Amino acid sequence: ASYTTSSSSPKLLFRQLFEKESSTYTYLLADQSHPEKPALLVDPVDKTVDRDLSFVKDLGLKLIYAINTHVHADHVTGTGLIKTKVSGVRSIISKASNAKADLFVEPGDKICFGDLFLEVRATPGHTLGCVTYVTGDGPDQPQPRMAFTGDALLIRGCGRTDFQCKIWVEVQNCCINQCIHRQEHEIIFTLPKDTLIYPAHDYKGFTVSTIQEEMLYNPRLTKDEVLKSGCGRRNGGGDAVAVAGCKGRSVTVAEKFKSIMENLNLAYPKMIDVAVPANMVCGLQDLAFKSA
Amino acid sequence: ASYTTSSSSPKLLFRQLFEKESSTYTYLLADQSHPEKPALLVDPVDKTVDRDLSFVKDLGLKLIYAINTHVHADHVTGTGLIKTKVSGVRSIISKASNAKADLFVEPGDKICFGDLFLEVRATPGHTLGCVTYVTGDGPDQPQPRMAFTGDALLIRGCGRTDFQCKIWVEVQNCCINQCIHRQEHEIIFTLPKDTLIYPAHDYKGFTVSTIQEEMLYNPRLTKDEVLKSGCGRRNGGGDAVAVAGCKGRSVTVAEKFKSIMENLNLAYPKMIDVAVPANMVCGLQDLAFKSA
Ligand SMILES: [Fe+2]
Ligand SMILES: [Fe+2]
């Protein structure tokens, strides 16, 4: 078992930043070997934009993208504010989020900064448009890989699935089973076990985990013992194989997962009525949400 | 300029953990290549002991040391509590701290865990007994090196120096100049520039820095331009050289530093009357501080 929790690449500059009020992690990534030092921020928070931007300036980076993993319900994204303060920065969110931004990404897309890039993977469940950004695979890319999972996969947990997935269940004839199956497939089963998990939040003070560790200890992924002992697709494999090989197991896990999530009795989030409308227009330069 | 902020060694398991109330970072280090996976905690907090210990258990580690960088004034150390919960753990603090513990370390000592070790460096100023623990130099040791600076060097700051150094000035005919000179010598000038700085606290959400970065941007180290342009001992050198080559400069920097620190007008710390007496007996198994 390898729990090494650092990734190295001579090109990558990487920093994890914390916003205490909403316990949100913002991530700064840059290609410091490139003459322009192009940089991006994942999940910036409005309240810490000044900190983030002065940090970017200190390090001599050129911020080109401000990216969200999903439409947050617990804090207002910093992307709109960043765009008013630094010219040339483009906001990015998934097309499936239905939110506004300068650029929309879909599963399989690559977000390039210098010689480095992030891959986009669909991880719906917490929201319909949740994506996970994963550092690239290749000689210049950081090893082990790093997955910015948003709220899809948290350390020893995952984001609540009662926001949009409930609606989705009824309207689109989908089910939470498919959400978690999709998440597992995109994050857990097709990435190396030593991939580092960097979530959008942590409430207990953890900063990073690995896929291996979450497979073993995440209570929302380990309720079925089959998950621990493996089911023939631990090391990846196509979707067809995954579905064929694990359908029975997935259903069981998903049902248990669903029952855990339904019994959490989560409170209505404090910030949701402010944050979601604002975050739906995160990329707008006119900061429409200021009047909301 | 290199700002890479990850250190790698196939042997090292490393985790940064955060305690929100006092904004304290606790660090877990282990040699995961060793059959016993010996581990140590740097600056554990009493309130997060259960989290830390269940984490240690999850990862299959054997906790052997619970270490403090200094006698903390803002939180109660977790070392005493840890010793009541896990047998065989030994607490460590510097001899100069005058606090109680199972083992006392002095500058130059090594704390070994498996094939890895930490070096002890004296960095007085915030308190008389403040030390910095630095990962070893050698083939198996993590690269770049990692310095656990406690409150001696914080990211873009340093711990207040009005606790003990003021007394020290009068009683021991020492001066803050020597403190900061000592700190600079032990951390800034004799370690590689890419050494990672892991402080005991951060109040703005930063998680890590590098020596290079602090040399450039730490306001308490950069008040004299000489510091930026260098003075002939950037890459180390003996104490004699350091003092001979930089005496004039050091005095200037230290005077400016002293004036910054004196003008901070810091409030009396909330926790100090509880925390300091408790932390002076951090290694005691009878938890004498419980009755304090
Ligand atoms: Fe969320
Ligand atoms: Fe302190």
Automatic annotation (TrEMBL), chains A, B:
<dbReference type="InterPro" id="IPR036866">
    <property type="entry name" value="RibonucZ/Hydroxyglut_hydro"/>
</dbReference>
<dbReference type="GO" id="GO:0005739">
    <property type="term" value="C:mitochondrion"/>
</dbReference>
<dbReference type="GO" id="GO:0046872">
    <property type="term" value="F:metal ion binding"/>
</dbReference>
<dbReference type="Pfam" id="PF00753">
    <property type="entry name" value="Lactamase_B"/>
</dbReference>
<comment type="similarity">
    <text>Belongs to the metallo-beta-lactamase superfamily. Glyoxalase II family.</text>
</comment>
<dbReference type="GO" id="GO:0050313">
    <property type="term" value="F:sulfur dioxygenase activity"/>
</dbReference>
<keyword id="KW-0408">Iron</keyword>
<feature type="domain" description="Metallo-beta-lactamase">
    <location>
        <begin position="23"/>
        <end position="201"/>
    </location>
</feature>
<protein>
    <recommendedName>
        <fullName>persulfide dioxygenase</fullName>
        <ecNumber>1.13.11.18</ecNumber>
    </recommendedName>
</protein>
<dbReference type="InterPro" id="IPR044528">
    <property type="entry name" value="POD-like_MBL-fold"/>
</dbReference>
<keyword id="KW-0496">Mitochondrion</keyword>
<keyword id="KW-0809">Transit peptide</keyword>
<dbReference type="InterPro" id="IPR001279">
    <property type="entry name" value="Metallo-B-lactamas"/>
</dbReference>
<keyword id="KW-0479">Metal-binding</keyword>
<dbReference type="GO" id="GO:0006749">
    <property type="term" value="P:glutathione metabolic process"/>
</dbReference>
<keyword id="KW-0223">Dioxygenase</keyword>
<keyword id="KW-0007">Acetylation</keyword>
<dbReference type="InterPro" id="IPR051682">
    <property type="entry name" value="Mito_Persulfide_Diox"/>
</dbReference>
<dbReference type="GO" id="GO:0070813">
    <property type="term" value="P:hydrogen sulfide metabolic process"/>
</dbReference>
<keyword id="KW-0560">Oxidoreductase</keyword>
